[in-house]
Each structure stands twice: as C-alpha cells, then as structure tokens.
Write a structure and sequence with these properties.
about 800 residues, mainly beta, Immunoglobulin-like, Maltoporin, Chain A, 2 domains, five-stranded mixed β-sheet, 6 helices, CarboxyPept-like_regulatory, membrane
Length: about 800
C-alpha cells in the first residue's frame, strides 16, 4: 500500500520543475456590496486563456512573461469590465463589477441564500466545481467533498437511486429548491434526484447551508438545505457535447446549446441527456432520460424567463439490500423480485422496476421598481406520475378485495400476482421576494414567501394473477388522495451596525394543512386531516477582525411537520384515541471563524461549531402497527453537536491542497426500544414485547468523524490530476449503539484526471478519467435492521441488511465545446 501511494505521489509531483516566470492573480467583488463573486469568468485577451473565480472570488493565470495584460471579467447579472495589469505585480488586485444594465432575474434565488453577513454556515459550489466531478453520477455524488456529507447508492455505483446525509440528516430533512422552487415531495419530504437525471449539466451553482440556515420555501430545513440555481444569462452563443463510458456498462450522453444574447434581449438554452448503467449490484440497471430548456427576455429593468426540465427513469429495484451473511460470499446479490417458479426453482421477475416521469415548469419574473428596490416572483407547476411493479407470491385474495376461488370442494384463498403501485400527482404554486438596499448600503432587507399546493393520488392495480377470481382488468385494490397546502411568509434583514459589525434577523411564518382520504396499500381507511402553524425565528451577527478574518454566530429555530407514513401507519388504538404524531422542532446554534488570505500562497480556513437540539424528533423505535409496519415515534430529547473544519491552500501555482473534517457527537436521551416476541406461526402474530430503555444512545447513521481530502496538481499545461480521499467512521443501523447492528467505518480513494486542449477547429476539447475506489476497498454506505424474539429461541434475532458500494471502477469521458 505504501509503495502504491509513493508511486502515485511521485508521478503527480515530479513535473513541479516546470515553473513559470510570473503568476497573475486577482479577486472579483460586487462593487456595490463588496461581496466576493464566485464563478466569474476571466479572459486573458490575446492569449486564448480563460478561468473562473473560485469560492473566494480568487483567480490566477500562470506561466506568464513580464509585461502588460488586458483582462475581460464577466459575471451573470453584472456588466463586463476590462482591466489592465502589469507583471510583475506588487500584490493581489481586485476587480469590482457593477450590476448589469440588463435584468438577470435571480431575485427569488438571492432572497433565500446566505452570505458572509448572515452568520450562518454554508458552502458555495460553483459550476466549475460541479463540472469537475460530473461524469454522469447522481447529484449527491457531485457534492461528496462538501463538509459533513456522506453519500450512498442502491445500485452501488452512483447511478439510479442515491442518498445523501448532511450532519447525519437524510434527504427527508434537507430542504431542496431549484431556482427557489421547492422540489421535496410534499408527503414523504424526500427529494429524488433520479427523477432529475443529469440536472448537474444545467446548474449554475449550488449553495449548501448546514443547520436550519436562512428562510426558504417548501418543507422546513431540519439538517441542511440545498439551493440549486440553473443556468444563468449566457451572453455568448455556445454548444457542447459530453460522452462518458465506464464500468458496469455505464453510459452518459449530453448535448447542450445556447443562443447567447440575441438582439441584446433574448436568450435560449437547452440540453438533452441520456444516462444508463447496469449497476454494481445484480439486476440494478438504470435507464434515465432528461431535458432542460429555457427562454428568456432581459430588459434594462425587467426579466421574464421560462424554464422547463424533465426526467424519465426506469430502474430495476435494489431496495432490499444484501443480507449480512452474504457480505463475504456474493456482494452483488440482489434478492428483489425473487420467487419460486412452478418447478420449485429460484427465479427472478424480470420487470421488478420503478417507472416514473416528473416534468417541471417555471415562469420567473423580475423587475427593478426603483434604483434600490426590486421584485421577483415565479409561478411553477410540477407533474409526476409513475409506478413500481412487483411479483408477489401467495397473497391473500381478501387483501385485494377478491373472493375465494372455488374449484369443486377446494376453496383457494391465495394467489401469486403482479401488481403496480401508482403515484399520480400535481404540485403548483407561486413564490415571491421583494428586496431593498439602502442608499448607504448598510441595510439589505427582503420580504418573501410562497404558497404551494400538492394534489396526489395513491393507488394499486393488479395486472396479472394466477387465480383471477372476480377481478377486473387492472383491478384497483386501493385508492387514496392527499391534498396539502403550504404557505409561508418571511422577512429578513442585514444591517451594518458599525464598520466591523453586521447584524442579521429573519422571521418566518409557515402554515400547513394536510388532508388524506381513501385507503392505503394495506386497505386501511386513512381518512384524516392535520394543520400546523410554525414560527421560525433566526438571528446572527458577523464581526470583521481585519481584512482577512471574521467571526460569526447565529441562532435559529426550525419546525417540521410529520411525513405521510407517520399518519397512515398509526395503530388502531392511536386512531381511536385521536393521537396524532407531533411536529418536530430544532433549536440550532452556530458559531464560526473565517480566514481568507491572498498573496503568493492563497489560503482559506473555516472553523464552525454547531449544536442542534431536537424536540420530539420522529425516529424508528422497533414499534409496529397492526399489520407489522415499523412506526416512528416522537422522542422528547436528542441532539447533534460538532466541529467542522475546512481549509484550502495553494502550495504552489501548480499544486492545491484542500481538506475538511467533521467531528461530532449525535445522541438520543431516554430512548425506548421495543422488540416483539413471536410464536412459530408464519403470519404476523406477536405474542409479547420487550422494552429496553437507553439513557443515552447514538442516533442512527450519524458517524462521529467525516473527512475529505484533495491533492490537485497541474504537471503540464492543460492537465490536472487530483487524488481524493474520503473517510467515514462507523455508523449504527438503529438508535441503540449496538456493535451487532452497525456499518463499519471506511476509507475510499478516487483518482481524477482531466486534460484540456484548444485546437483551432473547436473552442475546447477535454478527455477525463475518474477512477473510483482506486484502492479497491470493500465497504457498505447504507443499510437497515430489525429484530425479533421467538418463543423457541433464547436470544433475540437481528436481521441486518446492507448496500455494498462498488469496488474499483472507472468512468472515461470526452467533451467538446464549440
């Protein structure tokens, strides 16, 4: 192992002898607010070179001779600017951009984003950083280097259904918006990126806020939020294609284009993508298609932009995971779709698939009402429909509303069948934001909000049965409807109290009304209604120590309503007594330090301490309802606390080193675990239960240590090589801190190579290689467990299931920009 690491390091670092004479470096800022601008484009005139500013607004050009150079600097929403620089330069110079005479139309997005004065914890991920990692894997994998992030994949290779956790909170507790529009499912609170394949190729940037963060639209941010902005204003016409091939027969084909600014007013952008993979796990294929299209009008004081994007996915399900006993024998085994054929042999149903299409439509409008006052708003509509198909053995006919089949004297009460469970829904609404900046620039204030409604049908159909009984074609055996209305209004302001001290305040009111009617898939009547009213205050302060250093602190409250299953899976006794799940509340403290040092060796450092105190958090406790479904229960007290460190240094103009580390403690107080006892009857028939109290135990899926490290070198012009190392400590599958029910810690290394050249016949060509898990580590990033006791056994039985991740694999891409 040491020899391998030595050879890799020597190969990467050997070309450092190729030293340039001078480096031209600078920083881009907003002239009005003096804020850093990440993602600005800088062109070196006459030299055919270009770059973009990083998360700290910094950029540089290397290997330049002494002399005078002209730079053209541009950024979405700002006027282009030309500046001249003479080398050798005496220090870092700053480029201040003025707001554009054209309305770029990002008022709603800006209204829900944090900045360096809000006292909150966030990371900005630029378009270029996303593109660096975009080989066709799902969006969570492109954010894997963000602090406190852990990702996983059902199929094992990052294509298809994937998951992301930030500070231990899964996607149901992470607020996700696209251009300020909520995309979390209104009922489950999940955001399914598989329904938006290759959206990353149309993203301008992403802001990840950790903790409650600032006010946003949609479900409450209960661990983090992801604010995604799609492609902004492109003044120049472009066309691009990217094709990827890799392990497990993985393919990605993307074609993008843009008209540039037509007649100084109109823009059109588009993209078509297809992603497919067989997956690392057996029978875990993905077949994904998507498009993105936008058309905009940009006037001097107003903007109107239409955006639509759609995804269509078909995936063979790998949701059952792998039994613990198979981890050492067959790590790719997939039991989903397993049944016994007529000859008694093991067989797999070949269409055990998930099929879903989701279409998004957004209409954005922005208007400058006065020199320091602007208004933005958007109407949106999302249409989703699809099903997953299952082969089920020995199902009771009565559970599907069917009569027994009588053959002579025999009464047949069970049948094999194929069923489809459908979701058919509409989500629509409007968002708005009114922004004001005072004449002296000390006050920034926003009044914003949204109203959204979800209307969704849940139903199941039988498409084949061995014994059809009195069924009809596509027999519908359950049907339920959900109607959910979500309204919020918020006001927030940042005030520069002194030259060094800025204060931030944010207050949101949110109301939710949720109505269910009809039956669920177990044929239970789930008709009920619930309403919630939440007040979410936030406050923070930022103090500038000097031009390079600042400290901040904030406090925020977040509230979150229960998800659909918390209502539909209630026990009969709860229903009869009118007991409903309580909403969850989070009290979030953040305090941090930021260092930004420029010069010959640019260096950034962030340190953040957080404490997240939960009240009535809903977690699985082992309790089951009347038909054996696991129930989430409100736990009175639980907390997460930790320290997040992130640093990046440019050791040499050809070498960059970046690292982040999270050390945390995640605990539940006075946790009650329920384990049921059963007799030998195969049907669900508990004969008793055992309750164990844990005074303090670890929250499931919450590793104490997460780290990510990057070493990137540029040995020759156009070639960038990066070595990425990720570590995650052990995690528990439930909330008991049991070593018998856990995910082992793991360390994974990736190698990424990108070589760019600029021939005369195209703007740019690039070939790139990503070798994932280069050290061939066997590890599992997700799983689940359940336990029981049987009357004839002395000890409890634990059933652990895991999702193995792919061993060494590669993705090779070739891209052309015209």
């Amino acid at each position: 192992m040491k020899k391998l690491l030595f050879v890799m390091a020597a190969t990467l670092l050997f070309p450092l002898q190729l030293l340039a004479q001078y480096t031209l470096s600078g920083q881009v800022r907003d002239a009005a607010k003096n804020e850093l601008l990440a993602g600005a484009t800088i062109q070196l005139q006459g030299a055919g070179k270009g770059t973009v500013s990083d998360a700290n607004g910094l950029f540089e050009f290397q290997e330049l001779q002494a002399g005078t150079y002209t730079l053209q600097v541009s950024f979405v929403g700002f006027d282009k600017k030309q500046v001249t620089v003479t080398l050798p330069q005496t220090g870092l110079f700053e480029v201040h951009l003025q707001r554009a005479s054209l309305q770029a139309g990002e008022v709603v997005v800006s209204a829900i984003r944090a900045n360096e004065k809000t006292g909150t914890t966030f990371t900005n991920v630029t378009k270029e950083q996303i593109a660096e990692q975009n080989f066709g894997q799902d969006l969570p994998y492109l954010l894997e280097r963000t602090p406190s992030v852990v990702v996983n994949s059902d199929a094992g290779a990052g294509v298809g259904y994937t998951g992301i956790r930030i500070r231990g909170s899964d996607i149901t507790r992470i607020n996700v918006t696209v251009n300020g529009i909520p995309v979390n499912d209104a009922e489950s609170h999940g955001a399914f990126f598989v329904n938006m394949p290759d959206l990353a190729s149309s993203i301008q940037d992403i802001q990840v806020q950790r903790g409650v963060g600032t006010s946003t639209n949609g479900g409450g941010a209960f661990g983090a939020s992801m604010n995604i902005r799609t492609m902004g204003l492109n003044r120049e016409a472009y066309a691009e294609t990217q094709n990827t091939y890799g392990s497990f027969n993985t393919w990605k084909h993307t074609v993008s284009f843009g008209s540039g600014l037509l007649n100084d007013k109109f823009t059109v952008d588009g993209r078509l993508s297809k992603v497919s993979s067989d997956g690392y796990i057996d029978r875990a294929f993905s077949d994904l298609k998507s498009y993105y299209f936008s058309a905009g009008y940009h006037g001097k004081t107003g903007m109107l932009k239409f955006i639509t994007f759609s995804g269509q996915e078909k995936t063979y399900q790998a949701w059952n995971g792998l039994e613990e006993s198979k981890l050492e024998t067959d790590r790719t085994y997939n039991s989903t779709g397993l049944y016994t054929d007529a000859n008694g042999n093991e067989a797999f149903y070949d269409n055990e698939t998930d099929n879903y299409q989701q279409d998004h439509y957004q209409l954005h409008y922005s208007k400058d009402l006065a020199p320091r006052l602007n208004l933005g708003g958007a109407f949106h509509f999302t249409r989703g429909r699809g099903y997953y198909e299952q082969y089920k053995e020995s199902q009771r006919l009565a559970n599907y509303g069917l009569a027994p089949v009588v053959l002579g004297t025999e009464s047949i009460t069970r049948t094999d069948l194929i069923r489809q469970k459908w979701l058919d829904n509409y989500f629509y609404g409007a968002t708005y934001a009114l922004n004001y900046t005072s004449e002296n620039g000390k006050l920034d204030a926003t009044l914003g909000g949204a109203v959204n409604q979800y209307d969704g049908d849940h139903y199941g159909e039988i498409i084949w049965a061995r014994y059809a009984s009195n069924s009809q074609i596509r027999q519908r055996y359950y049907f339920g409807n959900a109607l959910k209305t979500d309204f919020n209004i918020f006001g927030k302001a940042t005030y520069q109290l002194t030259e060094d001290l800025s204060l931030f305040g944010d207050l949101q009111y949110r109301t939710v009304n949720y109505e269910l009617e009809g039956t669920d898939d177990d044929n239970r009547d789930v008709t009920q209604q619930a309403s919630y009213n939440f007040i979410n205050p936030k406050a923070g302060a930022t103090y500038t120590l000097n031009e390079n250093q600042s400290i901040y602190a904030s406090f925020a409250v977040g509230n979150r309503e229960p998800v659909r299953s918390d209502f539909t899976d209630r026990t009969q006794s709860d229903e009869q007594n009118g007991i409903t799940p309580k909403p969850e509340t989070l009290y979030n403290w953040e305090a941090g330090y930021r260092l930004r040092r420029n010069g010959s060796m640019p260096f950034t450092f962030d340190a953040n301490f957080y404490y997240m105190d939960y009240k009535n958090q809903l977690v699985l406790t082992g309790q089951l309802n009347d038909v054996g479904t696991g129930l989430r229960t409100n736990i009175k007290n639980s907390y997460r606390t930790g320290l997040e460190l992130a640093a990046q240094v440019q050791l040499h103009k050809l070498v960059t080193l970046g690292s982040n580390l999270t050390v945390s403690r995640n605990k539940i107080r006075n946790y009650s675990e329920t384990v049921y006892s059963y007799d030998n009857d195969q049907d669900y028939n508990p004969s008793g239960e055992e309750v164990t109290i844990y005074k303090e135990a670890d929250i499931a899926f919450s590793p104490e240590i997460i780290s990510s490290h990057l070493l990137e070198v540029q040995p020759v012009t156009g070639l960038r090589a990066a070595f990425i190392y990720k570590t995650v400590s052990k995690q528990y599958l439930d909330n008991t801190s049991s070593e018998n029910r856990k995910l082992n810690g793991y360390q994974v290394a990736d190698l990424r190579l990108r070589y760019t050249l600029k021939p005369v016949f195209v703007n740019e060509m690039e070939i790139a290689l990503l070798v994932n898990n280069v050290l061939n580590t066997k590890y599992e990033a997700n799983g689940y467990t359940y336990s029981s006791r049987f009357d004839n056994l002395p000890a409890r039985s634990d059933y652990n299931f895991y999702y193995p991740q792919a061993t060494r694999n590669f993705l090779l891409s070739f891209g052309v920009k015209f």
